[in-house]
Amino acid sequence: MQWQAVALSADQKGVLDWLARNARGAAYVASSDQRINYLTPTYTNIRAWRGHDYNTPEVSVRQSELGAAFSTGRPLPTWNPVYYIPRRDQNWTPPEGASRVYSNDSFNVWLYQPTTP
Fold first, then answer.
1. How far apart are CA 63 and CA 67, in angstroms?
2. What is the total count of domains within the chain?
3. Rg of the chain over CA atoms, in angstroms?
4. Exposed, middle or buried: residue 71 (CB in 10 Å: 0-12, 13-18, 19+)?
5. What is the model's pTM?
6. Considering the domain boundaries, does residue 2 fall inside one?
7. Residue 37 located in a structural domain
8. What is the pLDDT of residues 53-85, one digit of tens each?
């Protein structure tokens, strides 16, 4: 038995598999699901806005920004594309201009590409 194993639901794994096949470049993942955030660098070639406590620069700031993105709809402060991944049961509105690019029974994946400065 592995006491430090991280189990994923089929829907969490589905999101990570989709990202691994489709997400490219200098994009970020921002999810309301901490397991998706934490495992994004393991399963994909893109970065999570807020991952592991010890590996995320300014983790408290990043957590606050992530919380605001899903509670108030404020986009993350980046010019890079962001894959926003809320749970489907959340009452969340994506940033204007975002496109839903994937969904399963538990999650929606929205791609938001900020306009350049």
1. 6
2. 1
3. 14
4. exposed
5. 0.91
6. no
7. yes
8. 777 888 899 999 999 999 988 899 999 999 999
